[in-house]
């Protein structure tokens, strides 16, 4: 979760843009609403008063016991508060205030989702980012799940329960927009158990999959060039969109984050280029036989020597310089320089080629993943770490997350989770993103924390929000991670069915 922002100069930014361009052408208190005191009291950030929240909860509990009068009053209060929330958010920064939420099998119990959604409205949120694909499971009914992953709810007798459709419906009843939040390049451990998907799994030059380099052993990243992986994910998105969420959020749009010194990729064996599809696509970037031969040697050994270059020259004497996509040479280059002189240039350019090729796979996967939503006019966002695209010395952040190249037609959701004991590092992360966006890009920072108190070396949400308010002309929305942080006991009860 923690990411310490680094200062990245203009020269680094220009370098990144050149790399892609060259390699691939391809708040004040609000007045009270209404006239009924218990329902009308709202505080800063459009939060309901404790009296209004308790009145609604009492009605929910009475309705759950079969009290028809309470049921009618409960539905009326939901509609009233939905309108109040809409009015309040219209004139209160941020206009979009969202909360990240995970549901559990226990949430199929009567009234469970109602209670969760009510609490979200009570805190002034008007959007919910509902996790629908995570840890190799999907929030689809077991009897209507044609995807490559098992359903989250596998409780006997609950095979037909569509908790995703229910959550979307109940969210909307309260004036909430419900986005489907999905892991993307991280397909989860269950995918690794399928022998027919072995070639789709990303591997580095040490023969490892991400299961062996990520701490919790459950994250399985795939080869973004693999056709089967693309088909599986495309089908998953289509099934989720059948439930008509208000938006789609693509998370884990990157490669694995490794630990220690391995968190910086400095050599080709650090890259996730050692599965069949990504290699085949890399070889296709060669524009002559010399280029192809040198790419193969570089991938195999991690470097090329003057001897390699001499051998390649002799093998293909009819060709000029080794060529691959984006490599520009002058006619006189070969004749002027010896193989020894050319070696450092070629080796550096091969390193840039492989890094950019890996990143291009992420960008292409985003295009494929977001296409069904684009066809249906459904908003789509990409979730990323503000420092996931940086260079570090001669290396690159191992996540290789080229977010500054994400389409500006998508919402950008930077996870601004800085931990320095105050708001400065969080502000710096948001500032870095805003400095690299084009006009019109919708940026919605994700903040981690709790209302009214510090947690995990992060200031309260109020403090973080106040610090970001100076960016309000550019920032219309902010999200908070997560429901589980704000209601840890309730989240834990729901996770293990200790529902009271």
The number of helical runs is 17
Helix content: 40-55%
Structural class: alpha/beta
How far is the N terminus from the C terminus? 31 Å
Estimated share of beta-strand residues: 5-15%
Residue-averaged pLDDT, rounded?
Answer: 91
Helix and strand string, N-terminal first?
A: HHHHEHEEHEHHEEHHHHHEEEEHEHEHH
Low-confidence stretches: 1-18, 25-40
Main beta-sheet annotation: 9 strands, mixed
How many strand segments? 12
Q: Specify Rg, calculated over alpha carbons.
A: 26 Å
Report on the structure:
With 500 residues, this protein is of the alpha/beta class. It is 40% helix and 11% strand. It has 17 helices and twelve strands. The strands form two sheets. Strands 1, 2, 3, 4, 5, 7, 10, 11 and 12 form a nine-stranded mixed beta sheet that branches. It has a three-stranded antiparallel beta sheet with strand order 6-9-8, with no helix packed on it. Strand 8 and strand 9 form a beta hairpin. Helix 3 packs antiparallel against helix 4 and helix 8 packs parallel to helix 13. It is elongated, with a radius of gyration of 26 Å. The two termini are 31 Å apart. The N terminus is likely disordered. Keywords: Hydrolase, Signal. GO terms for molecular function: hydrolase activity. InterPro entries: Divisome_Glycosyl_Hydrolase, GH, GHL10. This is Family 10 glycosylhydrolase.
SSE blueprint and pairings:
Layout: H1 10-23, H2 37-40, H3 50-64, H4 68-90, E1 96-101, H5 112-122, E2 127-134, E3 137-138, H6 163-173, E4 177-183, H7 189-192, H8 227-241, E5 247-251, E6 264-265, H9 276-283, H10 289-301, H11 306-315, H12 333-336, H13 339-376, E7 379-384, E8 391-392, E9 395-397, E10 411-414, H14 424-435, E11 446-448, H15 461-468, E12 477-481, H16 483-486, H17 488-495
Parallel strand pairs: 1-2, 1-12, 2-4, 4-5, 5-7, 7-10, 11-12
Antiparallel strand pairs: 2-3, 6-9, 8-9
């Amino acid at each position: 979760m923690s990411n310490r922002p680094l200062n990245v100069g203009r020269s680094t930014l220009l370098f990144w843009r050149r790399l892609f361009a060259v390699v691939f052408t391809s708040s004040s208190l609000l007045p009270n609403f209404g006239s009924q005191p218990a329902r009308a009291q709202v505080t800063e950030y459009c939060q309901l008063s404790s009296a209004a929240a308790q009145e609604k909860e009492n009605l929910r509990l009475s309705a759950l016991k079969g009290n028809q009068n309470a049921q009618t009053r409960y539905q009326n209060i939901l509609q009233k508060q939905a309108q109040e929330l809409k009015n309040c958010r219209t004139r209160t920064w941020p206009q979009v205030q969202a909360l990240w939420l995970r549901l559990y099998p226990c949430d199929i119990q009567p009234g469970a989702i109602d209670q969760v959604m009510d609490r979200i409205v009570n805190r002034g949120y008007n959007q919910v980012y509902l996790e629908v694909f995570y840890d190799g499971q999907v929030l689809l009914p077991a009897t209507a799940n044609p995807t490559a992953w098992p359903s989250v709810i596998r409780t006997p007798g609950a095979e037909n329960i569509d908790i995703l459709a229910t959550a979307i419906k109940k969210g909307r009843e309260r004036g909430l927009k419900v986005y489907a939040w999905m892991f993307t390049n991280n397909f989860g451990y269950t995918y690794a158990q399928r022998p027919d998907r072995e070639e789709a799994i990303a591997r580095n030059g040490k023969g490892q999959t991400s299961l062996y380099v990520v701490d919790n052993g459950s994250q399985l990243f795939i080869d973004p060039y693999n056709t089967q992986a693309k088909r599986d994910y495309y089908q998953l998105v289509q099934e989720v969109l059948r439930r008509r969420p208000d938006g789609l959020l693509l998370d884990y749009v990157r490669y694995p984050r490794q630990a220690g010194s391995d968190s910086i990729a400095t050599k080709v064996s650090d890259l996730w280029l050692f599965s069949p599809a990504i290699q085949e696509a890399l070889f296709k970037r060669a524009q002559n036989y010399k280029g192809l031969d040198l790419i193969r040697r570089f991938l195999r050994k991690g470097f090329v020597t003057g001897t390699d270059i001499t051998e390649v020259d002799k093998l293909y004497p009819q060709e000029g310089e080794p060529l691959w996509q984006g490599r520009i040479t002058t006619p006189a280059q070969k004749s002027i320089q010896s193989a020894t002189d050319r070696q450092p240039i070629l080796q550096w350019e091969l390193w840039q080629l492989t890094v950019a090729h890996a990143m291009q796979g992420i960008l292409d996967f985003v295009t494929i993943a977001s296409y069904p939503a684009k066809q249906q006019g459904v908003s789509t966002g990409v979730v990323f770490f503000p420092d996931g695209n940086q260079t570090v010395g001669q290396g690159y952040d191992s996540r290789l997350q080229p977010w500054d190249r994400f389409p500006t037609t998508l919402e950008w959701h930077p996870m601004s989770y800085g931990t320095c004991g105050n708001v400065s590092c969080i502000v710096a992360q948001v500032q870095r993103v805003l400095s690299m966006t084009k006009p019109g890009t919708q940026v919605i920072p994700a903040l981690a924390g709790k209302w009214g108190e510090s947690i995990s070396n992060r200031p309260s949400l109020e403090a973080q929000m106040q610090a970001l308010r100076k960016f309000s002309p550019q920032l219309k929305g902010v999200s908070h991670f997560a429901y589980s942080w704000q209601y840890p006991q309730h989240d834990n009860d729901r996770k293990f069915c200790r529902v009271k």
